[in-house]
Amino acid sequence: MNVKHILLVEDDPRDEQLTLAALEGHNLANNVFVVRDGEEALDYLYCWGKFKTRATGKPVVVLLDLKMPKVNGLAVLKIIKGDEYLKTIPIVVLTSSRETPDVKECYRHGVNAYVVKPVDFSDFVKAVKQLGVFWAAVNEPPPQTWSEETLLPNAEVLSSASKEVFK
After folding, report:
1. Where do the structural domains in the chain lie, given as residue ranges?
2. What is the topology classification, in CATH, of domain 6-165?
3. What is the Cα 86 distance to its own chain's centre?
4. What's the rounded Cα separation, in Å, for the pair 134 and 140?
5. Is the pTM of this model over 0.85?
6. What is the pLDDT of residues 84-101, one digit of tens each?
7. Where are the beta strands (DSSP E) in the chain?
8. CB-based contact 148:156 (threshold 8 Å)
9. Which of 85, 77, 79 is nearest to 148 (CA)?
10. What gap in Å lies between CA 98 and CA 152, rounded to an integer?
11. Of 81, 128, 145, 150, whose Cβ has the fewest other Cβ atoms within 10 Å?
């Protein structure tokens, strides 16, 4: 995709709507693609399954929930950061978990930011707006170093971590 876009990985419809509402304030909501679980996120990133025909290209940032069905956020983070093609995508964990082991594990595996979802709506909106503006409007993503045609849509080159998830 030539247009900068954000991948939101969120299984809670309320949190999805809050996130999109927060991003609308800076005209970023139209460039957000939403998936509901970790498996769908990987399908999207690797152009698998129902995303097989999507235009290739990486999101400028992935907003990733941790506690999700099918494949949890930590597993998705490990796969992305372990993959030569995907590892440069900034990952922001956007979660309700304040658990120290979760925070440590995410940073250990290369998360770019860990944001605990505030309970207060205005704080949540403010935090998401700041994230969206920085990653989608201010930050300059790294230039492509791998041929997208070589790695996508078949994604033959996978990290060992990603192969483990699909066993």
Report:
1. 6-165
2. Rossmann fold (3.40.50)
3. 11
4. 9
5. no
6. 999 999 999 988 888 999
7. 6-9, 32-35, 61-64, 91-95, 113-116
8. no
9. 85
10. 35
11. 145
